[in-house]
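Subgroup meeting minutes
Present: P.N., E.W., G.H.
Scribe: E.W.

1. P.N. recapped why we're keeping a running log of single-chain structure predictions: easier to compare across weeks, and new members can see raw inputs and outputs side by side.
2. G.H. added today's entry (313 aa).
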Amino acid sequence: MSARTCVPELDQWLAPRWSRGGAALARSAPSRGSKSHLPLLPAAAIRVPERLSAQLALVFPSAAPQLFVHEGARQALERRLKAACPGRPVVLSITDNRHSIISHSLKNNVLHARVHHMFLDAPPRVIDALVRYVARDDREASQIVGQYIEANGARLARRRPRAIPLVARGNHHDLLSIFNDLNQKYFGGSCHALITWGRRTRRENREPRRAIKLGSYSSLERLIRIHPVLDRAWVPRYFVAYVVYHEMLHHMIPSARGNARQASSNIASAKGQIARRVLHPPEFLEREREFRNYDRALEWERRHITRLLRASG
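Output recorded in log:
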């Protein structure tokens, strides 16, 4: 049930991460039915996929899709940034990164900016806002930049989902059986997500764990992962079912604008509470309470969270 912390203005659908060394904008999928009133201009950067490049008999140094950037457009944008930062050198890089749309950092008094290629052919109004945002962290400019990113979401490259083995049958709980029961009872068999136990990882830091992700959902993979700490004889089936049900809701009910990582996590804290995010739409919270053992599951978690944290070690 988690999402990145958001900052003002862009926090309704972006997840900017701020630090003194840099800033980044991460986007979520555009809301359904959104329309852009910005003019469409010819692209100043093109992406050539691996298959197409093979058909053209071109030789590339890697198997990843290649990005070809109009150097004149890049230099023009770099000059705009230099003009907005007098006395400070600027190095502009154009990327095809779908998570970090805009980032910048200051190193040895040199401003290093990384900008998605969609901005090379952006309208003048958007370019002005981009420059103000990078140079001065202008809040009004962030709104304009955010709207442009949302309107051009189709230009963000999609990562190819990784092929991972699905292990649903545990030593004590069968996730697929639980999933199928919930699917028929609460969703009429219409939930078509995948489910697996997550992989147990070793922790180098031996300090007591303070939080744990009991479940997560990836919309890119349509995959629900459940933490293996729940595959214990002393963990009741109804609690495992509650965690699975919550992640199934994430598949069935898209998050509100702002879930930038395309994943949600069921996080149990040391105080025994499931972390709640404002990004859960009202419909999600209402449907969650329909779970038969909703109150019982939360009470069980409150009483056993310390034991779960110790067992996850």
